[in-house]
Amino acid sequence: MKMLFVVSYPPYPPAQGGEKVIYHRLQALADTHDIYLVCPEPPPEQREKTHRALSTVCKEVHFYARSQRLRTGRLQSTLRLLYNSLFNPLPQAAIQALGENTVEMCEAIAARVHLDLINFEHAYTYAVLEPALKRPASPLSRLDCVACEQNVEHQVWEDAALNPLITGLKRWLLKREAKKMFEYTRRIYPNFRRIIYISAADAEIFKRLGWNANLSTASVMLPAPLVFKTPEMKNRPQLIFASGLGYFPNEEGLLWFYEKIWPLVRSRVPTARLVITGAPTPRINRAVAHDAAVTLTGFLDKPHFEKILLESDASISPIRLGSGIKMKNIEAMSYAMPMIATPESMRGITCTDGEDVLIAGTTQAFADATVRLLTDAALREKLSANARKNFLENYSCEMALHTWKTFYAQPQLQAATAART
Fold this sequence. Notes:
Elements: E1 2-6, H1 17-29, E2 34-40, H2 44-55, E3 60-64, H3 74-87, H4 92-97, H5 102-112, E4 117-121, H6 130-133, E5 144-149, H7 153-162, H8 168-188, E6 194-197, H9 200-209, E7 215-217, E8 238-242, H10 248-268, E9 273-277, H11 282-288, E10 294-298, H12 302-311, E11 314-317, H13 327-334, E12 339-341, E13 358-359, H14 363-375, H15 377-394, H16 397-409
Parallel strand pairs: 1-2, 1-4, 2-3, 4-5, 5-6, 6-7, 8-9, 8-11, 9-10, 11-12, 12-13
Helix pairs in contact: 1-16, 3-8, 7-8, 10-11, 10-14, 13-15
């Protein structure tokens, strides 16, 4: 099968959740599918390496320049969000996905390759090619469109507005953005022949809305690590929070843990330590600046990350906001790491409380579960073995690949030209 794969960000390096979801699926499909990848160009210093890596799993890789440069500063991003919110009908995520000459690039591919379908990673990426898909003369308009949804996008913006770290104008803008994303998603969903979610919980939301009947679910895919935690490893009272802190649910969840739960844990296990990986935000830096029991590692390459992860007793996932699958939890399971998590963090993940993971939703319950895991070696060994087994049975590439191949291999339906006019 030949697929045009349109992504709103470069899926390499697979350092964050979204990139991991896409890259490992591309890797798993490479043997049986010809994938023509189209995505925004990476930073100049990463372009050659990214193109080389993606070319090993894709038939062709094409980068495009974004129409709108990403803003990284908080004030810059707020001002840009304000401008777009007031003067552009598209939601912010779709605006950021738009590129220069992207339609021409994809039409050129379709003109010389007999493509079977277009896969949009995130439904809002449909905006990248929408003008061509509505134009009958375009070679793209004859193709069926499918979408992979990693999140319920309007819920992401709704949750961002609930973030206690956000106030004032930014909160109002996020609420407005959630409404725009909701309306945009409702408008474009009929244009997709099939939609697949990587969380059954997310799929249920849209089934209740009744926007599209062609909804499927599939698991994320990760390769099984060659190293993982074993009972023979010596333990010490150390927790690890392994996640990118630039994403607001991770920052909010970690601050909640540090400010409310960590003091309760330390009062009962005075020797406990906390290791935080990833690039810290200014808020995180300020919060832990004078705490000798906390270590900020910054970004780690894979060997150093694995070493620190496996030296720790347990992984914490105190996430309270955001939709979609939390890849940090699947990854912890793959390394056989005992884990304490909130119900929101484990949403959509196949697991059993007390068998695969400890789930706690309140400050006191999370503290109690953390202390219990730090002081009970037998419980750690049980959760470790069950987590690894759960991962291998549900989320390893070998087990999850069949569902994805079935999704893409469903009989092609006639082109939805009428629906796109």
